Each structure stands twice: as C-alpha cells, then as structure tokens.
C-alpha cells in the first residue's frame, strides 16, 4: 500500500522565507512550488527544483493570485479568462525553471484563494483545467475528492488526484470545516498523524462526527508554513510507514 | 532575397499600453514579446500570441529585468546566476502563454538594460545563453552581429541571429552610437528605410562615416515604442519589398 | 457663481502614461493625484505637484487599492482596517511629495473600486474618513452628494464636497447609472458640457428621466483617461464660463 | 551619561516577517521603520508605530530603494533626483502612518544600498538631505560619523546624528570593514557588547588595530534581522546600563 505526501514549498521571496524547504524535502514525496506571483521567485524556484531532484521528490506548479502582499489568500475578483491566463503563465514559468534545474513539473495544485474558489466553483475549476490542458494536458491536478475541482478536472479530460489534509477537520459533506470554526484545524501532530492513518486505511474521509465517506486518496497534504509543520510532516510519514504504507509520489 | 523584420511588442501592463500591437503585427515578421517582468502581463501576452498566430508572425520571448517602474532600462546589478534564472523564468512563462494561445516561442531577444549588458559583457551574454540552452536549446538568440552576445551565443552552441537597427547609427567598430550622442537616433522614417535597404543590399553594417562592415543580416529591428514607430516600420517594409526583398521570419 | 472642475491626473507609472497632465492642468481647478499604489510614482507625483503649483491648481490625494495591474478597479476584499491604513499611507505619501514640490494636499478623493465601494458602503466610507481624520482632519473629501460616502464623511466630522460627473447619467435615486447600461456614459463633449451647465444652474442632479434632484454641487469631475478627455474638459469649462460661472478650486 | 540604541524594525511584508519587532521594541530606544518600498507595508507600519508609542520608543523613517525582491540591498542606478523623490515619498508615507497610529516620525535613516551609497557619495547624501529638508527640516539624519553623509547633512543645514554599529569592525579610516572581509562582522553578542561599551566610554570609534578615532556617538545600531539580533541587543543594552549609561532616544 502506498500514498503520496505533499507540502507547499518555496513560499519565500527574496530575503523572506516561510517554509523550511530543505527539511520538508526530506519528508514529502511531492512539493507544491510557488511560481512567483503570490510567493516565490526564480532564485528559490531553482533551489527547490534542484534540491527536490536530488532527493527524488516530485514537484508540482502551485499557481496563485498575483498578490504577494496577501500571499495569495485574498479572493480577488478575476474573471475566469484572467484565471486561465494566470495559471498558464505560472505553469510555464515553473516548467522553465524546472528545465533550468534539470527537473520537471509533474502536476499542478492551485494555491490559497484560487484553490478555495476552485473547490467551490465549477467555472473557476474549469478555467484552471483549461489552462493546464493547454500548457501540458498530461499534468494531473491535485484537488479535494468531493469538491468542484475534481469534477471539473475530470470533465476537462484531465486527471484529478484526490487529496486529503492531515490537519483539517471535514464536514459531513466531506468538505473542509472552515478555518475559524471550533476544531477546524488539528494542531496536535500525533492526532493529525493518527487521523491520516485511519483515513488511508479506511479508504475514506472521516468526518467530524466520525462517519467514513469512501474515496480514493492519492495524496496527503501537510502544511509547510505552520509552526510545527516539519514535526507534523515527520510524524505523519512515520506513522504511515509504521503501518506498512509507503510514501511514493503519485506523478 | 529575404530578411526578417522584428519589433518589441506587448509592452503594456494592465491598463497601460505603449506599443500599437495590432498595427505592428501587420508589418513585422517577428514580434519580441515582453514576459511580465519589465512589461507585459498574462492578458497582453495571450492577446499578442493569438494575434501573431493569426497573422503568421513569429514570436520571441523578450526577457528583461524585473523592473516595471524602470521599464527594464535600469542596469540593476544582478549576478550572472540571477540573470540565468530570470531569463529561464521568463522564457518558460512565454512558452506557457504560447501554448495557451496556440502558438509557440521561436527565439529569444534580451530587452533594454539586459540586452545592453549582454552586448558588452561576455559573462552576461553567456548567462543568457545558458538559460536558453537549458529551457530550449533550439531557440536562436537575436543579437548584434559584432557584439559580445553573438560570440557567447555561438560559443554556447546556440544560434545567434544577426540583427541591425533601422533607426540607429553605428560606430566604426559596428556598435550602436550611444543614445544622447548627436546623430545616434534616426528619426526620419524615410532615412531609416533608405539606410536599411542600403545595409541589406550591401550585406554590411554601414558606419557613421559610411564604411561598410560586412556581416550577415538576419533581422532588422524597428522600434515599437516611439511616436512614429508604425510609420517607420511601414516605410522600412515597403522599401525593402520595392527592392524585391521579402519579409520572412527567420524562425 | 462658481464651481470647481476636477480630474484624475498623474495616472502613469514609469514609462507609462494615461492622462495628458499638462493639458488638463490648464483646464481644471483641482487635480486628483494617484499616490503610487494603483498608479503614479514619486517622479510623476513630483511633476504634477510642481506643474499644478505653477498653474494655480489645487491637488487632492487620490488613494486607491494596491493593484497596479488592475489600475485600482478590482474590488479586492480588504478589511475596513486595511482600507484605513492604505488610505493613511497614500495621503501621507502625497503630503511628502507635495512638500517636496512646494505645494500642498488640499483634499482627498478615493479612486476606482475603493470609491465605488465607499459610495455603497457606510463602513468603507467611514474607514476612509477615519484615515483622513487621523492624517489631516482639515482635508475635505470629494464624494457623490447622495451616496454613502458623503454621509459617513459628515458623520466623522469631516467636510464632504458634492461632486457630479460630466459624462455620466444618473438614476432616479441620484446615483450613477452603472457602466454597461445603455446611456450610462455620455461620450459627446457638447452634450456633457450642456448637462453640466444645466445641473449647476439648477443646483440639482438631473436624472435620466429629466427629474431634478436638488443638491449642492461643489465640483464637477471630468475624466482624464478617456480618448476625448481633454476636449470634453475644455468644452465643459468654456460652457460654464460662457454662463458666467467661474472655475475656482473648492479648497 | 546616555546614548541611543537603534534597530531596523518592521521589515516584514504581508505574511512575511524578518524582525522580532515586539521583542526589539522592549530593548531599543529608536526604531528605524521600513516604509513600504524595500520592505514594510501599511499594516506592519501601523503596528510598529502603535507599539513603539506604547513603549516610549522613537521611530525614524527608514527609506530604501523600491526593490522588495532585493530587500533594498541592490545598488540600483537611480539618479540623485530620483533618490530625492523616493526619499520624500517614503518619509511622507511614514508620517501618514505615524499620524494614523498616534505617534510621530522623529528622524530619518537610509536603508541598505541607499545608505551605503550615501556614506560614499556626497551627491547621494545631499539628495537625501534635500528630500528630508523639503518634507520636514527638523528631522535629524542618522549617519556614520566619518562618512560622506554626515558632512552632506550638515552642509544642508540638517542635523546628523553619529551612529556606530555594535556588530561591525571599523577600518583605520573609521569606515566599516566591508562584509566578506575577515572579522568584518562580530557575531559574538558579548564581544559586540564589550566593544560598544568601550567605544561609548572612549567617545571614539575603535578601529580594527585598536586605534581610537574620537567622535561624538549619538546612537548605536544593533541589527534586527540576524539570528541573534534580540540577544545581542539585550546584551548591549545591559552592559551599557551596567556602566551607568542610560538608553535614551536622541530625538
């Protein structure tokens, strides 16, 4: 049995850093790499691609809104056409940096507000899918198994990879409990690790009430930008391996 | 007999415009497209790629320094490593937008201060060549026939395309007379057109004193951002065609 | 009888220009000056302040969202606290540039999406008023006479100046007919001028159906960024002066 | 006996942080506050001003080049006129945020490459002084006692405040040993603290060879962005107080 472990990396900019890229690249099998618009720059992109290559980690383009100040977390009212072009630009830029660093872009995962909007809106999700399809139709897209993006990705003829979050609670509909609600975020690394193991073994999202919602699970996201990111990622990996589940890139 | 006619296009940003892209795309055979760092954004890039495709115009990536305020004309002291990565990023982004718009990137031409530095410095020119080679080694690079960049490009195993400027005077060494010196810039469209015809027919750069310096001429640059840009480009093309010289993309 | 004529100026950025600042400064009595976040930079700000000073034109800070790409026209979901601080920053920057150029900031007018939001939302309008009050409580704020901003400005103890638009139709409620609806924008310079004269003489907004809604009119806005901006502004001024109405800054 | 202790603060941007502002504001008497061009944004500026006010810490505007990616450390070839306007803009913006937060701007200190250039070039230093004089001629300027900036500041009729660095070695001419040379940076907090005490008590810069160069010392800079910044600042302050030297803002 195997599963992928992904994390957002390379989210610095110039002198700024947020994620401990070197430490996380020793733990995850897939790295979602910021492409320079909400975070990231050619320097950090080249470093992460090169390090990921050396460690056998797959890299995905992680496009976001052009909002460095807001770290891509503000829902800026772009049209779906603008979103298509923002995504195409960033995937292309990531491919250029990958080629430069001797690695490749293996998938796409939307960042922050763009991701949240794609999980809710079939139109936004379809715009992302059109952009990916135009630039490289072989790239799969990481998305929640029960949201709008997985559906739109499949409808566009692309491959969605079902992703669950290690540190987030799920509603009875299988969506993320919104941040800010009690229990939405799981801060205890051991609890997060235990939940992941339970969900992977059950082949299901386990909701806040304990109900299993059967789904494929292609990848587990561990956040890279929280205080205990590295520790949580390490525990999740260790617990999965203890259960005989290998950590292997999905692409 | 044939030659290419190139111009910098797509140099707007959001609500801002500088170049009359639609008019110039009816005249030139190659369009140097700003990649979003000194000018350009995904919207204008998509529009220019699509229009160029429709009109049979080749498009080159036109990378510059990340200096929108300075329009890429400030010599920012980047290291050669940073320059490599800046160029790789922009060529990749242009390829992404080309794929999105159903067209392709056919060559690379450095912009503004980056270009000036590459014409003078073998190290800067080599950095650009390394970046292009890593991203797509088939792409030729537009460069002055007698400057450092053509040499470095060839040394890197890439193809330089010799470019002359329609509206600039040349020193006896075959380099551009620096802007600001008397006679450096040719503002009369007819004079510019006549000079181009003379140089193409002679197969030589003609210096300020009238001396011909024999060289290949692969492409003629007409500037897109001056007041009489469209008119000059039109005259240059008309005069060349009058002489039986076809305007054909080099790549 | 007298009235103020205002226009948005200084909306360039680096090599980019949109407004014909020199021509408009010969026509208007008040110039709304972009402060560097949605448009404008220290160079153009210094030039406009100096030229306005020389021509006896008052200058207002014209703060907008930090969205150069969107020219401040995207409704970015900033909190009211963030809006307060964005406005305080920009008014301060404008005051610094005014002092540098030997002029002063005489009022504040919100730009684009920020202005639209302030006309609709008492909370946004109050945030702007708090910022202006903190930085310089003597500064009046230009606002539509019948929208949320005039009310919130007054409630904050600041002075709203009632502004009407020369080139826009009004609903029966005295609000702008949204762009995109038929007749929303008046493109004929003579028609715009005639409407302005009629409204100023009537002391009323005249709605699309011809109903006069009595209101103070402190200033008339002529847009600076349209194709016929200078011509429209000139006609509006000429027609007002023909009627014996002087063009005088309100502050 | 008393001296001022200053540190660069507020050097974050959006989600990014570099300096531990809250901790440093408990130690220093003056905070140099980034103004949004090389670092900083209205949010962090408002927070630092408010916290500094609450803790009785003076705040200086800390203008730098508009180069967020380079953190203001790249020597961008701006003209002296552009530098004047960049500084005026940033000092004004800082004053706006100070007014908003109920505090005030008490002095100016140039950042990074701008500071380095001002210490070497009388023209750059004079440009900064002209800007400060225009915006608020009462503001003193922090500068090295033996460099070009102190002289140019005095020549402009403004007050230079002599600043020494706690963690940097000095040449026999009293200038900073360039980073990269052996011994240029003092990383041991105790050594830094001991040096500061020796220099303040001697009223002299002590060069690498141990020679005292007598000078006024108005302020001591402790860097805020190094790994041991807070610890070094704390030791410097403690050692000075142990010697009966009070830490008091100079302005």
UniProtKB/TrEMBL annotation, chains A, B, C, D:
Record field: catalytic activity: 5-oxo-L-proline + ATP + 2 H2O = L-glutamate + ADP + phosphate + H(+)
Tagged with keyword Ion transport: no
Class of this enzyme: hydrolase
Coiled-coil annotated spans: none
Alphabetized UniProt keyword annotations: ATP-binding, Hydrolase, Nucleotide-binding
UniProt-listed Enzyme Commission number(s): 3.5.2.9
Family that this chain belongs to: Belongs to the LamB/PxpA family.
Subunit architecture: Forms a complex composed of PxpA, PxpB and PxpC.
NCBIfam families: PRK05406.1-3, PRK05406.1-5
Protein task: Catalyzes the cleavage of 5-oxoproline to form L-glutamate coupled to the hydrolysis of ATP to ADP and inorganic phosphate.
Name the record gives this protein: 5-oxoprolinase subunit A
The encoding gene: pxpA
């Amino acid at each position: 049995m195997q599963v992928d472990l992904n994390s957002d990396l390379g989210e610095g900019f110039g002198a700024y850093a947020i994620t401990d890229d070197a430490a996380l690249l020793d733990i995850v099998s897939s790295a979602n790499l910021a492409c320079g618009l909400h975070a990231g720059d050619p320097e950090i992109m080249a470093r992460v691609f090169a390090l990921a290559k050396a460690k056998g980690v797959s890299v995905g383009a992680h496009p976001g809104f052009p909002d460095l100040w807001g770290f891509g977390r503000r829902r800026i009212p772009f049209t779906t056409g603008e979103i298509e072009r923002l995504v195409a630009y960033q995937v292309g830029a990531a491919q250029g940096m990958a080629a430069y660093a001797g690695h490749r872009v293996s998938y796409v995962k939307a960042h922050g507000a763009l991701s949240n909007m794609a999980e809710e809106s079939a139109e936004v999700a379809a715009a992302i899918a059109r952009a990916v399809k135009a630039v490289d139709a072989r790239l799969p897209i990481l998305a929640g198994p029960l949201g709008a993006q997985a559906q739109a990705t499949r409808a566009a003829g692309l491959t969605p990879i079902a992703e669950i979050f290690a540190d987030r609670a799920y509603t009875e509909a299988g969506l993320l409990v919104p941040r800010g609600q009690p229990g939405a975020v799981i801060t205890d690394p051991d609890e997060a690790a235990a939940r992941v193991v339970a969900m992977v073994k059950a082949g299901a999202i386990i909701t806040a009430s304990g109900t299993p919602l059967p789904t494929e699970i292609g990848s587990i996201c561990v956040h890279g930008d929280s205080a205990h990111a590295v520790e949580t990622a390490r525990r999740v990996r260790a617990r999965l391996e203890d259960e005989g589940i290998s950590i292997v890139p999905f692409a």
